[in-house]
Design brief:
Blueprint lengths: L10 H10 L20 H10 L2 E3 L5 H18 L4 E2 L8 E5 L20 E8 L2 E7 L3 H16 L8 E4 L5 E5 L29 H12 L4 E3 L12 H15 L4 E5 L4 H4 L11 H17 L5 E4 L16 H12 L5 E5 L14 H6 L10 E6 L23 E6 L15 H8 L12 H5 L10 E5 L15 H12 L5 H12 L4 H22 L30 H5 L5 E2 L16 H8 L9 H4 L2 E2 L10 H24 L7 H33 L14 H5 L2 E2 L11 E2 L1
Parallel strand pairs: 1-2, 1-3, 3-5, 7-8, 7-14, 8-9, 9-10, 10-11, 11-12, 12-13, 13-14
Antiparallel strand pairs: 4-5, 4-6, 15-16, 17-18
Helix pairs in contact: 3-4, 8-9, 13-14, 14-15, 15-19, 19-20
Length: about 725
């Protein structure tokens, strides 16, 4: 028999053996529900010993789904299929259910856990040690099961458990900006996952996996169509399609919602008006609500964008936002539905600072909305910028429910080619002190209803989901979906803890991977602010596409679509004066906040140019001039991407080769684009400052005109077939 050595083997054979001895390829489809095999043998053996038997009576569809998830997870991680039993064996039994389904075991679930909370505890039942997962409702049981699986996914001990948790927010909703033709406005991960043409006949497995992923992080609502709505979604043929999705979502505790066009009574109903005070219009909406609930008994309600960016609304008829929202609320009230009425409104006919318009339009109506209306407010006053101060409406309407709206899809944060972990952005806003009820009035407390227990509460996230195999385009963009769910459940959760959990569940528990990758995840958003919009700059991206830099944009058709409107660079300096000597937008905040941001001695560098127009030679806290500080941040931001890429390169072999390679390539794209942002912005602002770029920095590769003339063809997220220029 011939003898073979490594050097005798052909290259394909070497590659084959290398592949089977490394981590298997992974396209990211399973998200954080990988349920990878536990490789720590003693830990896996300990888990198996405690989970050999299971008492899990599951009669309802939701409990059946929870049980199936538990079995799938245990099989994947431990190759374990617990034996169904009706008797406690002691030390080896996991008991799961509600007091109703587990009445034989006298399970007590505190009322304080509400309808969606759960407990996971080690308990003595009939003098035998068991693991109990219990809740007041089937939905709570499902959340408990997913959290129990997370404990195992993240290699936590389960021999002595005493956990209890419940959501702090009632309505935890994903907003899909998906159109009926399957394009996605500001979507960067492929087409819409809703295949309307094949619904209701074909219910894709992807809908089920979407619902599973949402349930695993506590999301309990989904708005499946764009806020720039098509009235057709309310037609009977489309309600049948929506019904098919609702039937899937229901098994996972998720209610379906629809964005509605305010002019639907005219476009769909043949009325001559959509005036909210017209009796015929009121009846049309009431009848339409009745019809929807016949298709979908647990329908959640409506999301409305009105009188903003050309959308119709009550102001078209001389009525108010309260008139419009309350009319829809009355139609939904008999069915316990809600209206999520967006506060993203601005009008180019209003000459005042766009920053101020939502506050000016909504503040006067505090306390005048129906109880089932919640005003959906973006985290900041402009439009999901890389950094914004918290919206002044938070805390300014104590008698009105306010729903936080974050954007998961990275419209202004590099689309799906930049690694940007958004949880620090969420936390920055949520933990900001509004001072509206005195010191300690954080935005998170406002949206949780801490200061008015009568209010309904909510948090919405604009989804970053599409038909890409990995759902979100960039493997790390999944973390923003995951983090949103976790922070909608509890706005006070730590971005660092969430990042660590996501990395362990998605990739590996190897500390040599988790620690360094978590570190750059937590820094990634700040890096992106630095190479895009440092020191409080904002809204300087490319026109229309919002792709790449465009600080020179001054011909977008209306003033507040132009970058020059926001940065106001001139020979004297840069920045938007929002103090009393400027637009006075700061007057919309509590006196403590106004004083903090309005005083140059206390205003943090991060918000400096949001609120102040300063000389290029203004001396910063670092000792540098404003110009030199601006240049420093732009270069530091781009260099940070290079450092992130170097760290990622050291992760080779710790995870599957497929995702490692994809992220490595994306980081090179990000570095190229960060460098473009840096060079284009520094060169443009230099035309005003007339000051040199420090000798220590590499000079831009191209002249300014090169960047201004760049064309980007078929940019995703905007529709259409033409190229767009910056």
């Amino acid at each position: 028999m011939a003898k073979y050595s490594i050097k005798n083997m052909c290259l394909p054979a070497l590659l084959f053996f290398a592949a089977i001895n490394n981590v298997y390829a992974d396209n990211g489809y399973k998200l954080w529900l990988e349920y990878n095999k536990i490789t720590n043998s003693p830990l896996a053996a300990a888990y198996r010993q405690q989970l050999q038997y299971m008492i899990f009576p599951a009669q309802s569809d939701q409990l059946k789904a929870a049980k199936a998830e538990l079995l799938t997870g245990l099989d994947g991680m431990l190759a374990l299929k617990p034996t169904d039993t009706k008797n406690i064996t002691g030390g080896q039994t996991i008991i799961i259910g509600t007091p109703r389904t587990l009445n034989a075991f006298s399970t007590i679930v505190p009322d304080s856990l509400g309808s969606e909370g759960y407990l996971i505890k080690t308990a003595l039942i009939n003098q035998k040690k068991c693991i109990v997962i219990a809740a007041n409702t089937d939905a709570g049981v499902m959340y408990g099961v997913f959290n129990f699986l997370k404990l195992i996914q993240t290699n936590q001990p389960i021999n002595k458990l005493d956990l209890a948790d419940h959501p702090r927010i009632m309505y935890r909703v994903l907003d899909h900006w998906d159109n009926l033709n399957r394009t996605i406005e500001r979507g960067y991960a492929g087409s819409s996952i809703w295949n309307w043409h094949k619904l209701p006949g074909i219910v894709d497995q992807r809908y089920i996996d979407y619902a599973r992923a949402n349930a695993s992080i506590g999301i309990n609502g989904s708005v499946v169509n764009n806020v720039n709505a098509d009235a057709l979604i309310l037609s009977p043929s489309y309600l049948l399609k929506v019904q098919a999705l609702a039937n899937v979502f229901r098994r996972y505790g998720i209610r379906i919602y629809l964005s509605v066009k305010f002019s639907s009574p005219v476009e769909l109903g043949g009325l001559k008006t959509a005036d909210p005070l017209d009796p015929a219009v009121k009846k049309w909406w009431a009848d339409k609500a009745d019809e929807i609930y016949r298709y979908i008994p647990d329908f959640g309600g409506f999301l409305v964008k009105a009188n903003s960016e050309g959308q119709p609304g009550p102001q078209s008829y001389g009525r108010t936002h309260a008139d419009g929202a309350n009319m829809l609320a009355d139609a939904l009230a008999p069915h316990h539905g809600i209206v999520m009425w967006r506060a993203f409104v601005y009008d180019n006919k209003v000459p005042d600072d766009r920053f101020k318009q939502a506050y000016n339009e909504f503040k006067p109506f505090d306390g005048k909305f129906k109880d089932n209306v919640i005003i959906q407010v973006k985290n900041g006053p402009i439009d999901f910028q890389p950094r914004e101060p918290f919206h002044p409406l938070f805390g300014a309407m104590p008698n009105t429910p306010l729903m936080m709206e974050f954007q998961l899809t990275q419209e202004y944060l590099g689309f799906s080619t930049h690694l940007v972990y958004e949880a620090p952005l969420f936390a920055e806003c949520l933990q900001s002190d509004t001072y509206t009820q005195g010191k300690g009035s954080a935005v998170a407390r406002v949206i949780k209803g801490d200061f008015n227990k009568k209010l309904i509460t909510g948090m919405a996230g604009v989804a970053n989901i599409g038909t890409d195999l990995n759902w979100c385009g960039h493997p790390f963009a999944q973390a923003n979906w995951y983090a949103f769910g976790r922070m909608a459940w509890n706005p006070d959760q730590s971005p660092a803890v969430i990042a660590a959990d996501w990395l362990k569940m998605t990739f590996t528990n190897d500390a040599g991977f988790v620690s360094p990758v978590k570190k750059f995840m937590l820094q990634s958003r700040e890096n992106t602010v630095d190479y895009m919009t440092p020191l409080g700059l904002h809204h300087i991206m490319g026109v229309s596409t919002h792709y790449g830099p465009g600080p020179w944009t001054d011909n977008a058709g209306r003033p507040d679509w132009n970058a020059t409107y926001y940065h106001r660079a001139d020979s004297a300096g840069i920045g938007f004066d929002r103090t009393g000597t400027g637009s006075n937008a700061l007057s919309q905040y509590a006196p403590e906040v106004k004083a903090y941001w309005g005083n140059l001695q206390t205003c943090p560098d991060e918000y400096l140019l949001w609120f102040h127009h300063l000389s290029w030679t203004y001396k910063m806290r670092s000792g540098r001039s404003l110009w030199d500080e601006l240049v420093h941040h732009y270069y530091m931001g781009a260099d940070s991407v290079k450092q992130m890429s170097l760290t990622w390169g050291k992760m080779q072999g710790k995870i599957d080769a497929e995702r490692f390679t994809e992220v490595k390539q994306l980081m090179q794209v990000q570095l190229n684009e960060a460098t473009t942002w840096r060079d284009a912005c520094v060169l443009y602002f230099q035309t005003f400052s007339k000051m040199p770029i420090g000798a220590a920095y590499p000079k831009p590769q191209y002249p300014l005109n090169y960047y201004k003339s760049m064309k980007f063809y078929y940019v995703p997220g905007i529709g259409g077939n033409n190229y767009m220029t910056n």
